[in-house]
Write a structure and sequence with these properties.
The chain is mainly alpha-helical and 384 residues long. Helix content is 46%, strand content 3%. The strands form two sheets. Strands 1-2 form a two-stranded antiparallel sheet. It has a two-stranded antiparallel sheet with strand order 3-4. The N and C termini lie far apart (149 Å).
């Protein structure tokens, strides 16, 4: 009799729980009393989930609450013992991680004839996001230092970006530039080496699916200069323009414009020729006791003495008006053609001129094409 009553109570308890769990499926309520016997293992385990247990607070009686608490205590004790057990199991793994043990089987062979391949440390990428890394940093020797001494190099912390609370740790460019060299300190051959490595660096920064558009700009930029036949002799004239364009691209991220490069390079050629003329004039005059003037043919001053003069200048020997003038740092003919200073100083004995038709070979004393000024053909050399 008692056994039948217990079974009926258990059945009603199960119905009560299932009806509370899902009243749409289990429409009939059971007994108001419940016991652990009336719950199967699946139902019991669900009470480990806090959100599930919170839905049946009215059904959690003392015996069920004690069962849940005992289960939680066992789980916590198990977690406390786990690290000690794992420590014994992974002792070798811990040793390898702590000592950073190296696997010699991963060494790669040296291949004769294969050029050195630059590798770029992560701190170089982090720095480029905040400040343009100078070109000297990409010399092979400096990239090797960045890799070998990465953990000991001087660093600095940036201000937080918009929306962030912490700044980034980057290379201290100012301190490292003392060791690696500052911008514009490279020779032309060093520039070529560093430019190639910088292109490879930016090639690794290309976003997938963009057809390497980012690194293509650097390829076009550097190749413009390396493809010029006069890049070596004009290096001092164009290197400042190259740096300016590169820095502007970093700041504004503009597209490659070939016409801009050609215009800048032509200006560099003119600047170099002008500087060569000035150096030639200075060199010629320094070899003499006192300078001779390419305009008035007198000794004791050079052509710059008559710069932008508004007074009429005459030759002292015969009183004739001088033929040329000096304006805007150029020696000019009466019709404002630029006269080649180097040719007037040395004639055909000097280095071949590269100005082509932009400057004329005319005597600055008389305008003749047949002789230069300092051949003293049309004028007498002034006496000491």
């Amino acid at each position: 009799m008692n056994k039948d009553i217990e079974e009926k109570n258990a059945e009603r308890s199960r119905k009560t729980f299932k009806h509370a769990s899902d009243p749409t499926v289990h429409t009939e309520p059971g007994s108001d009393e419940a016991s652990l016997i009336s719950l199967d293992d699946v139902d019991l385990n669900r009470f480990h989930v806090p959100s599930f247990a919170a839905s049946f607070l009215s059904l959690i009686y003392s015996k069920l609450a004690k069962w849940i608490a005992d289960k939680e205590i066992k789980e916590k004790l198990k977690l406390k013992r786990k690290p000690a057990d794992e420590l014994k199991i992974s002792a070798e793994d811990a040793r390898i991680a702590k000592r950073r043990c190296m696997n010699g089987q991963k060494m790669v062979p040296w291949v004769v004839g294969v050029p050195w391949q630059a590798t770029f440390p992560q701190n170089l990428f982090d720095t480029e996001l905040c400040i343009a890394v100078p070109l000297p940093f990409f010399l092979n020797k400096n990239l090797n230092i960045l890799n070998v001494e990465a953990s000991t190099l001087p660093t600095t912390k940036t201000n937080p970006n918009p929306g962030e609370t912490k700044g980034n740790v980057i290379l201290d460019i100012e301190k490292l530039s003392i060791r690696f060299g500052k911008e514009l300190s490279l020779s032309c051959s060093q520039w070529t080496e560093a430019a190639g490595n910088m292109y490879l660096f930016h090639k690794e920064r290309d976003e997938d699916g963009t057809c390497e558009a980012h690194s293509t700009w650097y390829n076009d930029h550097f190749c413009f200069y390396t493809s010029q036949d006069t890049k070596d002799e004009l290096y001092d004239a164009w290197k400042a323009d190259e740096l300016k364009i590169c820095q502007e691209h970093w700041a504004k991220y503009g597209e490659f414009d070939a016409s801009r490069y050609y215009q800048a390079y032509k200006l560099s050629e003119k600047q170099q020729e002008m500087m060569a003329d000035i150096r030639g004039m200075i060199g010629f005059q320094s070899s003499s006791s006192t300078p001779d003037c390419l305009i008035c043919a007198e000794r004791g001053h050079d052509a710059t003495q008559h710069a932008d003069s508004t007074t009429i200048i005459k030759f002292k020997s015969d009183g004739k008006t001088v033929w040329s003038k000096y304006t805007d740092r150029n020696l000019l003919s009466p019709d404002n053609c630029i006269i080649c200073i180097s040719w007037n100083l040395r004639g055909d004995r000097g280095h071949p001129c590269s100005h082509k038709d932009e400057r004329v070979h005319l005597c600055s004393f008389c305008g003749s094409k047949n002789h230069n000024a300092f051949s003293w053909t049309c004028r007498s050399r002034p006496s000491n």
